[in-house]
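Example 3.
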Amino acid sequence: MVKYSRQREGILRNLQSRRDHPTADMIYDSVRKEYPNISLGTVYRNLTFLTETGQILRISTQMGADRYDGFVKPHNHFICKECGMVEDMEYISCDDLISEASGLYPGLIENCELQFFGKCKNCLSGQ
Amino acid sequence: MVKYSRQREGILRNLQSRRDHPTADMIYDSVRKEYPNISLGTVYRNLTFLTETGQILRISTQMGADRYDGFVKPHNHFICKECGMVEDMEYISCDDLISEASGLYPGLIENCELQFFGKCKNCLSGQ
DNA sequence: TATAATAATAGTAATGATTACTATTATTGA
DNA sequence: TCAATAATAGTAATCATTACTATTATTATA
């Protein structure tokens, strides 16, 4: 039985109010302004809960800590190899990719994650 | 200046001889049969080197340690949420996805990684 | 072939991200 | 209001990965 918690609500709202794909630690720093003695463990526990219940997305980028995304409508991500920035992309439909692959794969495909890597506009011009 | 090392060669060949996307630790266990006192640090250092020189691929799966792939021809991956297995998929061309996205994105897209998640055939039937 | 320069290694310590543990606090159904 | 228990704060532990350093292996050149 799941019980309400202010901390969980605070974490979810924090994540829904931003589009910068923060790490657990960045969320911790930010939520601490509202709940000064929230613990990092609480942040991690709730991020896992919110991910498992489909309220947020977890993104592994192979550069440092996992990122979290409060925007759950299916979309793709661009990750800058230079500055590590994670940016939303809405160019390619994962639903289409899933139906295409499902017809060929013997298992059950439930979701997909499409990541592009390269250099963002800022890093290109600042070079 | 890069110098040859038997250990690096052993790691590369080990990875090229299998299709199970092992973790650094699994590669360490396996390569240790040939080089009994290779160190885990050497395995990690060379996996990073081989990844950066494009000789192997690194895959982050958001379930445990990173996986490595000696098969570098572009392809997609299916990851079973139940048993963690990573399987190759050659259904969708990343090159096509990159050209599609490149026309729309202001930065420079260099490569892409497409992962599907769900339940593999084994886990479906064993349930 | 011997040698000097230095890249790579083994072994170990350190770091960073995440999870586990436990006594206390908050939520909620009766 | 109260009892049951989910969730928390704070801390310790774990897991994956990187850093450090003295020693060894590779390689270009004499």
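Residues 1, 3-6, 23-25, 40-41, 44-45, 48, 64-66 of chain A lie near DNA strand C (CB under 10 Å from a C1'). The radius of gyration of chain A is 17 Å.
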